[in-house]
């Protein structure tokens, strides 16, 4: 018997063979069972382009189901051929992450269908058993395919990232750049088709250049791939919604996306036609949902480089896939453990926790139970258990005297693990202390913890989920106590931390580098931060005495620490950026957002505060702040989804949903329910005081600018690490661009068209030649009949593509972000020039030549082009023109080489003038305030500079203009008088303001004396107005407006007393002299010290001294005398006092109508009295005439 037993070595050698054989059989069994689905997935996109929309949509609808089957099959394939694993894993992660989205885009799904189609060809490997099998050339199947699998995995991930970027854009953002996005999506479709062909070719080679029966169907694959390439645009057009078609036509009719965005009326019409509102244009909710914010956002979208955006997103997307991978692994592991647990307990025993199982059996419950009954049963059960334990313990004591056996241990002790964590060296104790929290007083909190769907019933699944979700080593009773009371205390602790962070942020913004202030203001004034405050205000705090129970505090702190470790690991993995709700679910899983919203907000805002501290010493990319707003917005998107779910449940039992929401999760969703509206008057960021019992000694919100000296502030900023930034820090523009360095010409000029060119796109109107887009530098490279290269003008570097014929006829396209021009011309070898005509690309098929304008490019260096003669000068005297050009260009070159003072002086003057004129031109075009329009001579001067300056210099100066504009404070408001966008100085009337401090008459510095009427407000230039050189946020408006009224009343009272005093002095009355000294110090300007006792003037709202500033000093932004106002700063808000008259009540249109109605009633009374008097007179006259008539008749 021993001789016939198998050898252990033989077992080990045969095991892998048997395992591989089993995997091979499982793969083929799976394929046979699902071959129809896999076959339908293969080539489905190639077929779709020839089908109707309904058939295409059916293919899209079944995508998720087909993908699920395909992924299972690919897993089986990976067991046979492990080398496919890298591509299969990438495919699974991208598809799984995408399926979790609540909404998906059909055009994106078309790309994913082609990705799916690519993966189906891998099933051809099922006919090959051994990955180490060698082909005719001696290469193993594994070696042949591994590199290709790596490439496929890389492209699948890149495609997933690109689709991720596209999906996060608003509808209008996607539409205005639809051609660019669709071309990139189509590029991935073609790429996957190429990969499919490459796999086919590799298999073809490996099978000795013979295609077996399984591969015969691929013979026609090339034809299908060509169909896909040629018809992708047609397929996208079939998938266009009616809304997309309408919006695209509107954009084309209005002259393109740029023209639509730049025109306010057209933009509003475009937004209306798109079906969106201004707020929805910004998925990050970083603005106020107004026209100014929308225009900024859309212009940013138009200027964004799509490929660069895809590249930037790749790092975050990779991390999302890593987290998705870990989550899938954890799910598989926990599912397996759960199945084992169920099987070991018996099919009938579905409740997992022993205590809950005992309760379920004892009560005779079936599949679910009323939540209230469940909680009460818990209390009864544990009360009885502890009573039994006490009886057993007493019996044990008595029995031990008589030699009895010891009693059983407690049913639900606090775990040794938890006790060791909380108190090293302590012995386990029973958790009967927690029983006092399992009662009616804490009923709602326990119900919410267990009743996951909020239906009022607890199912077996919910009971299991609740019990299984407790930390390892925690007893059920401790877990119940935490959710009964500990969670509320934890939420309140986070609430106080977040309030402190927001208040510190609001103060910190004033000290940021000026280039960061605009982005930081937009972030803090945006809807995301406003909704954070609304959540805080809506959430009821726990009583400070809740932590008097030390044991409750211990478990609350232990759970908080445990959860924070997990949360911080996940946030670090995502670089603290949440770009959609699918990403958020990678952190929270399927659990309710109310469990995570507070710790999530706390840690995100802590990171945002650190970034703001860095913004005090570094210039940050504005996208840093946009991403911050976006992360917060995603959290509130999840909050809205949860509120919608709760609304559906609560509507079934109550008509007043808002009132019922006040009892859910401590009321945190109550104020967020319904349409969002700004509510500055009730904003609590500044007014909130830290609650007793919830302090945090280790809170780091330094520096305190009121208390800390400059050295302390510097030390705080010095310890901040830039690793928390997603983008590189920036600097002020200081490097002049070098086009040839950025886009070097070919090393060898193989063709006459190769190399550097300088030229212009011109227009001729009534004989006057103007230059569009300034002078340009162009680099061309010829390859066959193809031309490629780049063009630099004063705004950007643009792509150039074209063709050239044997006769040197050239056609090339210059592409801007939102439009393109086509240049058609001829290369002249004698003059070495390219000349011809240019036109807008959309007009190139038109038969009319009216819009065709000339262009010219020559070999003259860009630095010397400004000295080049005109055609008229050359025609008049060629020699003089050439000599004049040569002399001027040579002098300039010598001065430039030697960096002479005249040359530098001239450059400085040109730079200064270009920047000044461009800023003023931008202010006029963009309707900014304040503004000084260019006159005709200045417009001509600016155009001349754009032509004369080298493109690299002009582009650098244009960058400086953008940077200078970035430093100007913008308020996202329009002046009620001139209707321009307010910048630099914001003035708003606090007497023409609604009760919520949300809407007011806003004025620019140019219109302070104007008296506009708007939305029921009737403004007077004597009203109280607040002036600010910085943005005042909602948390400040809540106290600034009331304080401004108080300060104004005091100032007017002082004016009145001063006026009365002056009258008494002039009248020779006693007591005047002593009172004069009392008020005189307060009636002078704190800058020039002139008297302002009669107004008009400004008074500081922020300073304790309430310093006065006269109109002249305010206009000059003069510095105050520190002896008169030591703490005053230009950032402090001022209130306007015109005279010493009492503050009048605000006059609205309603009031004026009421007054008019009263006057009309009085007028009606007067008219009625007049009518009555006239009637009386007419009656008397009629009687008189009748009498006269009678007398005449008698006489006759």
TrEMBL record:
InterPro entries: EF_hand_dom (IPR002048). Residues 438-473 form the EF-hand domain. This is EF-hand domain-containing protein. The lineage of its organism: Eukaryota, Fungi, Dikarya, Basidiomycota, Agaricomycotina. It comes from the Eukaryota. One of its GO terms (molecular function) is calcium ion binding. PROSITE patterns: EF_HAND_2.
């Amino acid at each position: 018997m021993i001789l016939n037993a198998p050898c252990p070595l033989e077992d080990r050698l045969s095991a892998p063979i048997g395992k591989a054989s089993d995997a091979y059989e499982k793969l083929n069994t799976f394929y046979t069972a699902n071959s129809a689905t896999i076959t339908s997935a293969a080539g489905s996109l190639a077929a779709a382009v020839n089908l109707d929309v309904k058939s295409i949509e059916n293919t899209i609808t079944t995508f998720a189901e087909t993908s699920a089957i395909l992924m299972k099959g690919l897993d089986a394939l990976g067991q046979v051929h492990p080398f496919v694993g890298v591509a299969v894993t990438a495919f699974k992660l991208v598809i799984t992450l995408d399926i979790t989205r609540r909404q998906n885009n059909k055009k994106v799904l078309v790309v994913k269908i082609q990705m799916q189609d690519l993966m189906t060809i891998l099933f051809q490997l099922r006919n090959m058993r051994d990955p180490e099998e060698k082909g005719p050339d001696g290469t193993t199947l594994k070696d042949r395919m591994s590199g290709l699998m790596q490439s496929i995995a890389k492209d699948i991930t890149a495609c997933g990232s690109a689709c991720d970027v596209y999906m996060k854009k608003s509808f209008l953002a996607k539409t205005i750049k639809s051609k660019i996005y669709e071309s990139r999506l189509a590029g991935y479709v073609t790429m996957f088709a190429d990969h499919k062909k490459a796999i086919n070719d590799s298999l073809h080679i490996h099978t000795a250049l013979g295609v077996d029966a399984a591969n015969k169907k691929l013979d026609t694959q090339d034809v299908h791939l060509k169909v896909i390439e040629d018809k992708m645009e047609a397929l996208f057009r079939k998938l266009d919604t009616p809304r997309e078609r309408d919006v695209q036509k509107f954009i084309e009719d209005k002259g393109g996306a740029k023209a639509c965005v730049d025109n306010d009326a057209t933009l509003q019409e475009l937004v209306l036609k798109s079906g969106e509102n201004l707020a929805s244009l910004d998925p990050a909710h970083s603005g106020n949902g107004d026209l100014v914010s929308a225009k900024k956002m859309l212009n940013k979208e138009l200027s964004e480089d799509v490929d660069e955006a895809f590249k930037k997103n790749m790092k975050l997307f990779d991390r999302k896939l890593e987290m998705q991978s870990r989550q899938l692994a954890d799910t598989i592991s926990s599912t397996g453990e759960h199945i084992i647990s169920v099987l070991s307990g018996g099919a009938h025993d579905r409740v997992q926790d022993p205590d809950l199982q005992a309760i379920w059996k004892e009560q005779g419950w079936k599949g679910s139970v009323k939540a209230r009954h469940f909680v009460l049963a818990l209390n009864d059960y544990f009360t009885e258990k502890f009573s039994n334990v006490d009886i057993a313990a007493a019996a044990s004591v008595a029995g031990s005297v008589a030699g009895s056996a010891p009693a059983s241990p407690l049913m639900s002790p606090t775990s040794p693990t938890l006790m060791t964590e909380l108190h090293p060296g302590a012995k386990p104790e029973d958790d009967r202390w927690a029983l006092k929290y399992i009662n009616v007083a804490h009923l709602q909190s326990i119900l919410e913890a267990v009743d996951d769907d909020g239906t009022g019933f607890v199912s077996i699944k919910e009971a299991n989920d609740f019990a299984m979700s407790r930390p390892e080593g925690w007893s059920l009773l401790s877990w119940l106590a935490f959710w009964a009371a500990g969670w509320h205390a934890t939420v309140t602790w986070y609430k106080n931390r977040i309030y402190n962070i927001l208040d510190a942020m609001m103060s910190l913004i004033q000290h940021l580098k000026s280039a960061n202030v605009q982005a930081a203001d937009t972030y803090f004034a945006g809807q995301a931060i406003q909704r954070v405050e609304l959540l805080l205000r809506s959430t009821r705090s726990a009583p400070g005495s809740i932590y008097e129970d030390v044991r409750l505090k211990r478990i609350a702190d232990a759970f908080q620490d445990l959860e924070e470790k997990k949360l911080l690991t996940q946030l670090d993995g995502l670089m603290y950026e949440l770009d959609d709700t699918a990403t958020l679910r990678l952190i929270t899983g399927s659990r309710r957002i109310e469990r995570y919203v507070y710790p999530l907000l706390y840690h995100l805002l802590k990171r945002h505060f650190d970034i703001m501290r860095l913004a005090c010493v570094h210039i940050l990319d504005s996208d840093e702040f946009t991403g911050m707003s976006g992360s917060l917005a995603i959290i509130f998107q999840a909050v809205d989804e949860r509120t919608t779910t709760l609304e559906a449940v609560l509507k079934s039992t109550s008509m007043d949903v808002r009132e019922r929401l006040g009892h859910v999760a401590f009321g945190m969703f109550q104020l967020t329910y319904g349409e969002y509206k700004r509510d500055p008057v009730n904003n609590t960021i500044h007014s909130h005081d830290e609650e007793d019992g919830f302090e945090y000694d280790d809170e780091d919100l330094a520096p305190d600018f009121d208390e800390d000296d400059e050295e302390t502030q510097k030390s705080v900023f010095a310890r901040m690490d830039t690793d928390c930034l997603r983008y590189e820090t920036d600097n002020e523009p200081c490097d002049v661009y070098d086009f040839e360095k950025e886009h070097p010409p070919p090393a060898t000029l193989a063709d006459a068209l190769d190399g550097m060119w300088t030229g212009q796109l011109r227009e001729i109107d009534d004989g006057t030649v103007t230059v569009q887009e300034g002078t340009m530098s162009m680099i061309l490279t010829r390859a066959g009949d193809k031309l490629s290269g780049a063009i630099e003008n004063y705004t950007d570097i643009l792509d150039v593509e074209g063709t050239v014929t044997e006769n040197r006829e050239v056609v090339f396209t210059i592409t801007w972000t939102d439009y393109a021009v086509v240049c058609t011309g001829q290369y002249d070898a004698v003059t070495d020039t390219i000349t011809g005509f240019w036109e807008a690309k959309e007009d190139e098929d038109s038969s009319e030549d009216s819009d065709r304008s000339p262009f010219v490019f020559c070999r003259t260096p860009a630095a010397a082009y400004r000295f080049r003669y005109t055609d008229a000068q050359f025609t008049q005297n060629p020699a003089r023109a050439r000599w004049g050009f040569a002399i001027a260009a040579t002098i300039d070159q010598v001065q430039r080489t030697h960096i002479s003072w005249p040359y530098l002086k001239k450059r400085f003057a040109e730079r200064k003038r270009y920047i000044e004129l461009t800023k003023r031109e931008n202010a006029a075009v963009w309707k900014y305030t304040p503004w000084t329009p260019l006159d005709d001579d200045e417009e001509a001067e600016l155009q001349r500079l754009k032509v004369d300056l080298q493109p690299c210099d002009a582009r650098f100066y244009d960058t400086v203009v953008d940077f200078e504009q970035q430093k100007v404070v913008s308020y996202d408001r329009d002046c009620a008088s001139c209707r321009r966008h307010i910048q630099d100085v914001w003035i708003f009337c606090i007497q023409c303001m609604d009760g919520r401090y949300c809407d007011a008459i806003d004025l620019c510095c140019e219109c302070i004396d104007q008296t506009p009427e708007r939305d029921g407000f009737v403004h007077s230039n004597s009203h109280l107005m607040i002036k600010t050189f910085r943005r005042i946020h909602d948390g400040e408006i809540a106290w600034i407006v009331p304080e401004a009224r108080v300060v104004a009343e005091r100032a007017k009272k002082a004016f009145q007393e001063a006026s009365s005093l002056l009258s008494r002095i002039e009248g020779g009355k006693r007591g005047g002299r002593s009172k004069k000294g009392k008020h005189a110090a307060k009636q002078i300007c704190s800058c020039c010290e002139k008297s302002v006792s009669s107004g008009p003037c400004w008074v500081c709202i922020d300073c304790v001294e309430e310093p006065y500033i006269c109109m002249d000093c305010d206009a000059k932004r003069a510095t105050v005398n520190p002896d008169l106002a030591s703490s005053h700063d230009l950032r402090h808000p001022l209130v306007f006092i015109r005279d010493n008259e009492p503050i009048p009540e605000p006059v609205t249109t309603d009031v004026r109508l009421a007054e008019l109605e009263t006057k009309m009633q009085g007028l009606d009374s007067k008219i009625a009295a007049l009518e009555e008097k006239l009637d009386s007179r007419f009656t008397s006259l009629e009687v008189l005439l009748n009498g006269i008539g009678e007398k005449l008749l008698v006489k006759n």
